[in-house]
Every structure is written in C-alpha cells, then in structure tokens.
Amino acid sequence: MRRPGAMREQELAIPVHEKLGEGLISVPEGATLDLDLRLESVHEGILVSAEASTTATGVCGRCLIDIERPVQVDFQELFAYPSGEAFDYEVHDDHVDLEPLIRDAVVLALPFQPVCRPDCPGLDPETGERLADVPDREPTQTVDPRWSALAGFQASDTDESTPSSGNTEER
User: Fold this and answer.
1) Could you identify which of 35, 92, 95, 126 might form a hypothetical disulfide with 12, taking C-beta atoms 3.0 to 4.6 angstroms apart as the criterion?
2) What is the pLDDT of residues 153-169, one digit of tens each?
3) Range of the domain at 21
C-alpha cells in the first residue's frame, strides 16, 4: 500500500450475482464474467486497468428471436487514497470495490437495439411472421387508413398555375 511502482496482475472468473442490463439484451444472473486485471500503485492511489468479457443474451430488436452476443469492455480507473477531496472511487482499508465499475462498464457496452444480423428485415406488420424466413415474399403494401382520403388525389401532368400558350397580352 502506498508504494508507487508496485503492480499486481490477476485473472478472475466470477459469477454474475444479479442481471446486468434491463433492455432487450442483458447479462443473465449466473453467467461467468472473465476479468483480466492490472492493479498499479501510484502516488494518488491505485490505478486499475481491466478487460472484462462475458456473454449477453436477449432478443433481436427487429424480429424478436433469441440471440447471444459476446461483450468485451476495457476500462481504467483511479481509486484514490482517502483524502479531504471527493473522488468517485476510493481505496478503503487497503481494498478497492470493483463491482460498481465493472457493472457500469458492462451495462454501457450493451447495445440499445440489438439485432440478430445487421440486415435483419424484421417482422411482417400484418402477419407477424419473420421476413427472413420467407425471403421470396414481397412485403405487403398497406395504406394507413388515416391517409385513405388522399388516395383519390393524383398528381396531374400539367401545372395549372402556368398560363396557357397562346395570345396573351401583357398589360
């Protein structure tokens, strides 16, 4: 403690005690989180550099099938020695609490709208079937009933605002 230059590297595989994330995809409780840690003592505190990796599960945001995605995040944070100043992370009794830092890094790395593949066509709005399962099928073209009153209007080929050609006198 408080010996600048001292360093410790450690690899850990820890179980996730509660689900990480709340959207369409999350890291489930019971999953394994692999950590590759490097802890360095510096003048101000302990510098933690880490790489975390795990697998997130959820559903595709377009077609709603189950998906799994690898999650890998790198982060670095200084845990300051106790002082009169306020820091986000501090060293307490020669220990650092990595849980909030790891949780925040993993949750922020999760995609907001995950997809099974980048070109996922999604679901048919009428039938609800996956469009990827029927690639030959033409998508249905339905008119929103709120716009049906405009369906009778057609764009004309002539513009009525221009004067007709012929003898016009300028006044």
Assistant:
1) 35
2) 776 666 555 555 555 55
3) 7-109
